[in-house]
Amino acid sequence: MTIQQEPVKNIADLRREYTRGGLRRKDLPDAPMTLFTQWLSQACEAQLPDPTAMCVATVDEKGQPYQRIVLLKEYDDNSMIFYTNLGSRKAQHLSHNPKISLHFPWHTLERQVMVLGEAEKLSAKEVIKYFHSRPRDSQIGAWVSRQSSRISARGVLEGKFLEISQKFMRGEVPLPDFWGGYRVRFHTMEFWQGGEKRLHDRFIYQKEGDCWKIDRLAP
User: Fold this and answer.
1) What are phi and psi of 175, to 5 degrees?
2) Which end of the chain is more exposed for a tag (fewer CB within 10 A), N or C?
3) What's the total number of domains in the chain?
4) Is 94 marked as a binding-site residue?
């Protein structure tokens, strides 16, 4: 018997108050990655599901934006790194337009971080090092999926996984030539902290030479 789910009658009425805290200009560090590292650490400590998950936005050759969730794997003071299939839709977009946006939605902590920058391919040395640090099943999975390509059924993937598992049963799984990663060199980072009465705190960091300009934005 099929159980019918009642539709939400009015989604416009769904709201909650944000009360977890504020963000003040006097408390901001000079560089954005100091605050980002603090917030990411707190997201991990709060045991949020997938705290490194970020929405990656790219644009195709017709100007159509696309979004998908990818995991942040490394970062430093000037860049963030993720890995993907180089034949994927996102990789195709980045090949003709390297401009990219990243978004971290830490809703439970009433926080968001938005990043703007440009993506560049990682070197083969960087990719190989990370690839061989992954679990073996993830390495095999990279061989199985021609990301974003059309397939007839899930069974195609499962059959391919079994085939590749048997092929590389002994020894190291080699790096596929169609798998790699990107370094996003960012020039803008925005921090959003929810506030009561919808008076949210928003601060934007923008790179100016070797320094960062900080401005408060209206919510």
Assistant:
1) -75, 125
2) N
3) 1
4) no
